[in-house]
Write a structure and sequence with these properties.
Blueprint (H helix, E strand, L loop, with lengths): L2 E4 L5 E5 L1 E2 L9 E2 L2 H8 L2 E5 L3 E5 L4 E6 L6 E10 L2 E10 L2 E14 L2 E8 L8 E2 L3 E6 L4 H12 L1
Antiparallel strand pairs: 1-2, 1-11, 2-13, 3-12, 4-10, 5-6, 5-13, 6-7, 7-8, 8-9, 9-10, 10-11
């Protein structure tokens, strides 16, 4: 599973490693579905310098991965149920096609927001919090990349 702390004054998400058996910090409170939707709708998740996934307000996703070794584009859906965000994205690219399924629970703590990954990309439950990070950016920062990568994939 994954925990990511959202800094209160910035939209950088940084991950902390932990075992699934580790308890959430004392005083952690699940975000409501309304709070989570307000934080995520019409935002773009950036993973590393190459991947962007836009979370549209209508519950659809559009993604692009523009690493020259493994370019890919993806479309899918996302939804919030309670304090859990889940998405499913169908990726197609130079490395083949695959579906990414991912779920994360969001908790408010005294120092920010912690995100606990609850499902692996292949849909199986996680047993360990992997190390990683995200940047959450306002608006759609994926469509332009999607178009460029899609054009490259046609060649």
């Amino acid at each position: 599973m994954k925990r990511i702390a959202i800094l209160a004054t910035a939209t950088l998400l940084t991950a902390a490693g932990a075992r699934a058996s580790d308890a959430l910090p004392e005083g952690s409170v699940p975000l409501s579905a309304d709070q989570l939707n307000a934080k995520l709708a019409d935002k773009t998740l950036a993973r590393g310098g190459h991947e962007r996934v836009y979370l549209a307000p209508d519950g659809t996703t559009l993604g692009a991965y523009d690493n020259k070794a493994a370019e890919a584009v993806g479309k899918g859906t996302w939804k919030v149920d309670g304090n859990e965000l889940c998405w499913s994205v169908d990726w197609r690219g130079r490395g083949g096609n695959h579906t990414e399924r991912d779920c994360r629970k969001f908790y408010q703590t005294g120092s920010g927001i912690i995100v606990q990954q609850t499902v692996n990309a292949d849909g199986s439950p996680l047993t360990v919090f992997p190390i990683g990070g995200f940047v959450l950016m306002p608006g759609d920062r994926a469509t332009e990349r999607y178009s460029k990568v899609e054009e490259l994939l046609r060649k």
